Amino acid sequence: MIFARRLTHAAASAGRTALGTVLGLTLAGAIAFQPNATWAQAAAPAAAAREVPRAEGAGPALWVVRDADSTVYLFGTVHVLRPTTAWGTDRVDQAFESADEIWFEISNPDDAAAMMPLIQQYGISPQRPLSSLLTAEEMTELNAAATGIGMPAGQVDMLRPWFAALTLSIAPLVKAGYDPQSGVELVLKSRAQAAGKPIKAFETIDSQIRILAELPEQEQLAFLRSTLEDYENAHVMVDTMVSDWSRGDVEALDRTIVQEMKTDSQVVYDAMLTNRNTNWANQIQQILAGSGTAFIAVGAAHLAGDDSVQSILAQRGVTAERVE
Asked: Of all residues in the chain, what percent carry a pLDDT higher than 70?
């Protein structure tokens, strides 16, 4: 869904697919938890409350919104990271520790029991196999990619385009050392649980799955085709994105993720970012109507660009200040 033109077209296509999932949906990490995904079986044990490597310099960006009796922190995340990624900072730790409640996109990305029936409902379609939608050459490439990640021969044909694309875009990242257990949300969730902090969410697994499952079929197929072009190079773009994120370079994230997504597909851009950011801004205003401190951790793409959560809040007279 996202690409950087300074790379080759093939690597760029793989990069935009992976970046769209890694920064767009917590669901990306959730897919990697599926027990039948053999490429995910080498993932680390369940995340425990722990310290992460300390970031060099300022670290990832953090914002704060305040009124007379409320404080809301906004922290952009990456849903799948290498365990060695350095992103810890004192200011994020202090903001997190001060919070009365912790908010995520979804509260249970590691819940395979909740995921499986939804995958069956929205992700499997034997009545409309991919072989009826793709060319013979594309099916050959798809089967080769699926076999390479341990998927039984022929199984991929039963997947809906969005689910095949998402599975194949995350698999090479895990092979390159990215681990859903090291994603920011699971680390922070374990800390919240250890500290007895309430965990809340803007969305559900069901609603996130339907963001992709309800895209027009042609958009889903475009997502799948871009994944197939050179999916094994997906980690190249993700490495660049993680570097920008870990340094707090929000402008770079806007250029290489948000703006490229908007250029590539307005439909996907609205479904993945604008509509959800608007919904979340509504909920944040409800939080501000109460009292206390909330720490919100959502994908970094939602906190960059002209249609970011902060921009939508600003249009309503609510100012988010960056914490330096």
From this structure: 85
* 160 and 134 Cβ atoms separated by less than 8 Å: no
Q: Are 163 and 195 in contact (CB under 8 A)?
A: no
What value does the CA radius of gyration of the chain take, rounded to a whole number of Å?
19
Dihedral sign computed on CA atoms, order 90, 92, 98, 101: negative
Residue 9: band (very low, low, confident or very high) from pLDDT cuts 50, 70, 90: very low
3-state secondary structure of 109: coil
The amino acid present at 282, given as its one-letter code, is N
Strand partners, 294: 72, 101
Question: 154 phi and psi, to 5 degrees?
Answer: 85, -20
Query: Structure pTM?
Result: 0.89
Position 19 scores a pLDDT of: 60
pLDDT tens for 247-303 read 999 999 999 889 888 888 889 889 999 999 999 999 999 999 999 999 999 999 999
Q: What is the dihedral of CA 261, 287, 205, 59, to 10 degrees?
A: 50
Helices (DSSP H) in 196-308: which residue ranges?
A: 205-213, 217-229, 234-246, 250-253, 260-264, 266-269, 275-289
Token pair of 12 as six digits: 């760029």
Show Cβ contacts of residue 263 under 8 Å, excluding neighbours closer than 6 positions. none
The answer to whether 321 touches 73, Cβ cutoff 8 Å, is no
Owner of token pair 């409902």: 121
Helix, strand, or coil here: 57? coil
The winner for highest mean pLDDT among 5-19, 20-34, 37-51, 243-257 is: 243-257
Residue 40 pLDDT level (bands cut at 50, 70, 90): very low
Q: Which residues contact 141 (CB under 8 A, 6 or more apart)?
A: 228
* CA distances, 142 to each of 27, 146, 148, 154, 167 (Å): 22, 6, 10, 10, 12
Dist. CA 153–CA 176, nearest whole Å:
23
- Helical ranges in the chain per DSSP H: 9-24, 27-31, 90-98, 112-122, 136-148, 161-175, 184-195, 205-213, 217-229, 234-246, 250-253, 260-264, 266-269, 275-289, 309-315
